[in-house]
Amino acid sequence: MTLVFTALVIWALGWAFNARLANGPHADTRAVRLAVPVIFGLTILVMWELIVRGMEVPGVILPPPSAIGATFMGNLPILWGDFTQTILKGGLSGFAIGACAAMLVAILVDKVAFLKRGLLPVGNFMAALPVVGIAPIFVMWFGFGWHSKAAVVVAMVFFPLLVNIVAGLQDTSAMQRDLMRTYGAGYWHTLFKLRLPSALPFIFNGLKIAITLSLVGAIVAEFFGSPTQGLGFRISASVGQLALDMVWSAILVAALAGSVLYGVLVIVEKGLTFWHPSQRQQ
Q1: 72-280: CATH homologous superfamily?
Q2: What tens digit of pLDDT does each residue of 218-232 get?
Q3: Which of 101, 106, 139, 165 is placed for a possible disulfide with 148 were both Cys, Cβ 3.0 to 4.6 Å?
Q4: 22: Cβ–Cβ under 8 A, 6 or more apart, which residues?
Q5: Is the overall model pTM greater than 0.90, yes or no?
Q6: Which residues of 192-222 are buried (b: 16+ CB within 10 A; e: fewer)?
């Protein structure tokens, strides 16, 4: 129980230190904004390690972070192959196809009035379908390779992106559109010079939602059939072997990949929407 008490003391000290940083005179500096989440995360990891070891929790229930880290470093080639199969092939390919398709269909919906009334309600219905329901069907249709996982991802990201892009294209005022008409701009000039730039915040909101959905969809789809590789396969197989440290290692790969991809989208968004009030306030 000494380790558990030590963990509680570390939590209290970390909380007090973070509160002081977050409410101090340098709270708005970049260094403090980075330090606060790092300290918070390290505090949780230290508590996790001490509590698991102090309470002698079996590794088949919850392994300590040190064991997960050792397994992660010792299986990097295997995890890299899983990352390539699930994230690069299934997740990102499906994300790219779904995003491009959603953009093209959104422009078509914007131009054809009856599609807006007919397709968007269907889109809301399709977006509500659970991935565990469509994944086995797509695996039967497209096979056990990465193609079926990409198809699941396309189905998951297409309609959320479509709804966001259509909403973004409608975000211009009548005065702005009238001004473009006085300049003699047609539909396509107005679309590329005014409406798409104005829709960028909506598009990036949809992309940030879709990138996390794509990883979840690709991993879950592998539970219903995949070759002997992939993060979903690794999690499923390792659970059957009671190798929880390998399960957490695969989860760590997915979390790191999702964080990096989300961060890339945020950086691109800041570069393209620097003019938007939400970016200027930052």
Answers
A1: MetI-like (1.10.3720.10)
A2: 888 888 876 778 888
A3: 139
A4: 32, 36
A5: no
A6: eebbbbbbbbbbbbbbbebbebbbbbbbbbb
